[in-house]
Amino acid sequence: MSLETDIKSIVESVGLMLYDTVITSENGETIFRVSVKDKEGKGVNLDRCVEITHLINPLLDVTPPVSGEYRLEVGTPGIERKLVKLENFENSIGEKVSITTRAKEKISGVLKGVLDGNLYLKVDHEEVVIPFSDVVKARTYFEW
Fold first, then answer.
1. How far apart are CA 135 and CA 109, in angstroms?
2. DSSP secondary-structure letter at 92?
3. Domains, the chain, ordered by start
4. Distance, CA of 139 to chain centre
5. β-bridge mates for residue 127, sequence order
6. What is the pLDDT of residue 38?
């Protein structure tokens, strides 16, 4: 099993879902970032993030995500977040998304579904279908 699969199992064991894992560098420091979501959209509080951190740490002692020093961060992806994997889109159905395609088209609307590698959006009372393979950049957004 992969590290991400193991982390996913741990996160799901406490009733949450794994949104993403990312290795990034900020100010010369390597960060292993684990993003989790509530399956019912209720949100995840700090205590739950601490709980996940304590559950994941022993696994990372045995199977570190990177060689050398790193910092583990467990949090939520936030209201406005990048959508990179097809699974990210599947977990964002019903939310407002903004997508940039290979043709440099910018499309914003409500994500209605994901099926057979296509994204289905409602844009101005019309359904727009975008192949996932055409997506260059995407994120959810919130209108304040």
1. 14
2. T
3. 3-75 (3.30.300.70), 86-140 (2.30.30.100)
4. 10
5. 122
6. 87
The torsion angles phi and psi of 121, rounded to 5 degrees, stand at -115, 145
Cβ atoms of 109 and 97 closer than 8 Å: yes
- Chain segment 47-94, per-residue pLDDT in tens: 999 999 999 999 999 999 999 999 999 999 888 889 999 988 998 899
Residue 136: partners with Cβ closer than 8 Å, 6 or more residues away: 100, 101, 102, 104
Tokens of 120: 């289905």
Q: Which of 14, 12, 19, 16 is nearest to 33 (CA)?
A: 19
Tell how many helices (H) and how many strands (E) occur in the chain.
3, 8
First to last CA, the chain: 42
Cα–Cα distance measured from residue 137 to residue 117, given in angstroms and rounded to the nearest whole number: 16
Show Cβ contacts of residue 90 under 8 Å, excluding neighbours closer than 6 positions. 114
135: its two tokens: 């997506």
Contacts of 133 (CB under 8 A, 6+ apart): 117
